[in-house]
Structures are given as structure tokens and as C-alpha cells.
Specification:
The protein is built from two helices and 13 strands. The protein is α+β, with helices and mostly antiparallel strands. The chain binds fe (ii) ion.
């Protein structure tokens, strides 16, 4: 393990103590043995067990890492994105969106600010997404929920990595829908995307400014960050 990688993992560990630490420890443990393995034939195969090594972590309402915008006075206003046909109002307040669906664990966290980078407490994120097979729960509220920011504007929620689904003849990249509201601010309807998704380059709807920052490596649960700015 080189020094840079040790440094990166230590930073991630420190950054995620509020998540119970187990997520990062699991991710680091996974990276020791995970990842594609070269075979004698020269072909690369995926490791046999893609399931996370550890239980899903509990989610703290606070995001322990300060936003990179925290010391700035101008924050780029978050871009809107299409709502799509699957929004359902009145989703329950919950930080863990999946109660039955399984898949690659994912924690998304970040800060909601105004255009001058001042945190907005009490903002509401109304979230909905597809399951690992790309299907939405249109009968109930699985993988749907609302979370609120704390006094420092921080939010966090736990879910699973959404799957791709066909839109016409083309798959959409994995994404998470969000309606973000706050007193005195304009309602923002948008989507969050994942770096490296193979459909990011061909999707006609994606806005690259909406791609989250992934803070984990290799396999295991993902930890992603996205900071919003509202007007
Ligand atoms: Fe969608």
C-alpha cells in the first residue's frame, strides 16, 4: 500500500466517523482483496462475491466533512433536471430509503446552501429512485423518502445504487431524483448521477454538473457527496 493510498483512506475514515466507521472499514478491507483479478488466460474476471462485507451503516444527519464551498462566498446554483414520470408526493420522512430492496449500499450526503454559500437548515429533499433492476415502486414508497437538513445545512440518506432502465430504445444512466425545497427558495427538481456510469456519455438528459463525488474506492458500499445551492 503506498503512502498516497494510505493517506486517502485515512482521510475517508476521518470523514465518515459519523457514519459509524464501518462503511469505510468495510470498503478498505474490501479493497485489499477486491477488484478484478487477472487470470492465467489473461482475462479479467470480477471477484465472486460482490455483496458488501459489512452490514449497512447507520446514517448520521450530519455530514462531517465541510463542504468545499464552505469558505467561498459564491456557490454555483444547482442545475435543474427533468422530473420524469415516476414522482409520488407525500413520501415518508426517513433516512434509509430501502426497507426491502437490496443492492450495493449507498450513502449520499452533502450540504444545502444558498448562492452565497450560506447553509440552509430545514430544507427538504424529496427523493425517489429505481431499484437495482431499474424499476420504480409506483404502488408504495420503497426507495422513496424525504430527508431534512440540520441547522448546518447538512443532509444524509442511505439507499442502494439504482439500476439502469430503458427510456425508449436507450438506457438511462443510474440516477437519483430529488425535489429540494426550502422556505423562501425556489423549488428545485433535479437528478443526481454517478461518475463513470457508461450511459453518462450518451444520455440526452444528463447535466454533468449533477454528477456526485464518490468518496469510496473499488467494491463495497458507496459513499457519495453532493452539495446543492438554491436561489
Ligand atoms: Fe428516473
Amino acid at each position: 500500500m503506498n503512502q498516497n493510498k494510505q493517506h486517502t483512506r485515512r482521510q475517508i475514515l476521518e470523514a465518515t466517523l459519523a457514519l459509524g466507521g464501518s462503511l469505510v472499514l468495510g470498503a478498505c478491507a474490501r479493497s485489499q482483496t477486491g477488484g478484478p483479478h487477472p487470470q492465467p488466460s489473461g482475462k479479467w474476471i470480477e471477484p465472486p462475491n460482490q455483496r458488501p462485507l459489512i452490514a449497512q451503516p447507520s446514517v448520521s444527519a450530519s455530514a462531517p466533512v465541510a463542504s468545499p464551498y464552505a469558505r467561498q462566498s459564491v456557490c454555483p446554483v444547482t442545475a435543474p433536471n427533468i422530473e420524469g414520470p415516476f414522482y409520488k408526493p407525500n413520501a415518508p420522512l426517513k433516512q434509509k430509503l430501502n426497507t426491502g430492496e437490496t443492492g450495493r449500499g449507498l450513502v449520499v450526503r452533502g450540504t444545502v446552501m444558498d448562492a452565497k454559500c450560506r447553509p440552509i437548515g430545514g430544507a427538504t429533499l424529496d427523493i425517489w429512485q429505481a431499484n437495482a433492476d431499474g424499476a420504480y415502486d409506483n404502488a408504495g414508497y420503497e426507495l422513496r423518502g424525504r430527508v431534512q437538513t440540520d441547522a448546518e445545512g447538512n443532509y444524509a440518506f442511505h439507499t442502494i445504487h439504482p439500476g439502469h432502465y430503458l427510456n425508449g430504445s436507450q438506457y438511462r444512466p443510474a440516477h437519483i431524483h430529488v425535489k429540494l425545497s426550502a422556505p423562501g427558495k425556489r423549488l428545485l427538481t433535479t437528478q443526481l448521477y454517478f461518475p463513470g456510469d457508461p450511459y453518462n456519455e450518451i444520455d440526452p438528459f444528463i447535466d454533468k454538473s449533477l454528477i456526485m463525488q464518490l468518496e469510496t474506492e473499488y467494491y463495497g458500499p458507496e459513499l457519495a457527496r453532493y452539495d446543492f445551492a438554491l436561489v
